[in-house]
Amino acid sequence: MIEVAGITKLHGREVVLDDVSLTVGAGTQLALIGPGGAGKSLLIKIMAALVRPERGTVHVNGEDMLALNDVELARARASMGMLFQNYALFDFMTVEENIAFPLRQAGKLGEGEITERVAELLHQVDLPGIQKQYPRELSGGMKKRVTFARAVIHEPPLLFYDDPTAGLDPVTSSKIFILLDRMKRERGVTSVVITHDILGVRDICDEFVLLNHGRVVFRGTRDEIESSEVRFVQQFWRGESDE
Ligand SMILES: Nc1ncnc2c1ncn2[C@@H]1O[C@H](COP(=O)(O)OP(=O)(O)OP(=O)(O)O)[C@@H](O)[C@H]1O
Ligand SMILES: [Mg+2]
After folding, report:
1. The model's pTM
2. Which atom of ligand 1 is nearest to the CA of 34?
């Protein structure tokens, strides 16, 4: 479903992604983990063709994402949902307008149905009744959950979640991970989940990719990562420090 090959991205003279190749099979939920600054957010932005790499190829559903024109890109993006790490909510829109945005863009549902779906999603993320509030009135954790609702409302077959539980309390975090798991099981979505919460994703992801300094240093199943003999992989997975 997603295939990136030989991705190299520069930031000035610094190489921030270094020859990254990765495939995500249809229906797979893949966890992308790694230290801060490893290049995780950048990699999913390249997968969604929001950022162009200096080198490499990006295919989504067999389509060469780097060769599409603006109209084709808009169509391709309509099949994706993106939960941005920094929320990226429109601050001049209410919660309801923010969440409904991808649906209104798609233009397929009537207003009644849109209102219903927004209410249902807000209920699922434990924020019933906040439709008329503005993002500036919300806490970080509330914004995360609104961003989640906006990412999934148009039921895209492909989802990118960038740190979906950052700033959430443990109970709300596990609710979000349960929702992620349901997206996969019930809707068969393909997804990439960036997270620092390894305990949270351990049970719900099929594959784990560890990125460090812009390189893929490990890729495999939970069993494989748990039995890895590489010190850095072990340390990262268990949250151990050198000291
Ligand atoms: N559009 C861009 N073009 C070039 N370089 C970028 C771009 N966006 C971010 N970077 C650089 O890429 C590097 C990795 O950033 P990125 O945000 O992907 O890290 P991350 O792994 O998501 O970290 P964190 O866990 O802290 O969110 C940083 O050095 C950053 O400055
Ligand atoms: Mg990031």
Report:
1. 0.94
2. 21
